[in-house]
Amino acid sequence: MADPRRTARVARYKPPAAETNPALEDPTPDYMNLLGMVFSMCGLMLKLKWCAWVAVYCSFISFANSRSSEDTKQMMSSFMLSISAVVMSYLQNPQPMSPPW
């Protein structure tokens, strides 16, 4: 029984370059990073715990959808800002979070 695959005709997959087609660039990590920073500031300034938790959620989404070639400093600063918003909101008021409605 011979191997039916033809090794000479194997074509390796090469993803299309983002420079040639800007529609392939996914803006989700950037939007989530911005939303995380906005919610972190709302959580810190307005002492809203749910805003701080939404900021952590947005930071995780931004981290999960980012590419390895992107700048990690901005992502880590957004993540640390959201964590500090949660910590500071619970240090100022240790009661459990009340529903926002």
TrEMBL record:
PANTHER family xrefs: CGI-140 (PTHR13193), PAT COMPLEX SUBUNIT ASTERIX (PTHR13193:SF0)
Gene Ontology CC terms: endoplasmic reticulum membrane
Localization, UniProt: Membrane
Name of a matching Pfam family: ASTER
Main location: membrane
Ranges in coiled-coil conformation: none
Protein's name in the database: PAT complex subunit Asterix
InterPro entries: ASTER
Domain of life per record: Eukaryota
Alphabetically ordered keywords of this record: Membrane, Transmembrane, Transmembrane helix
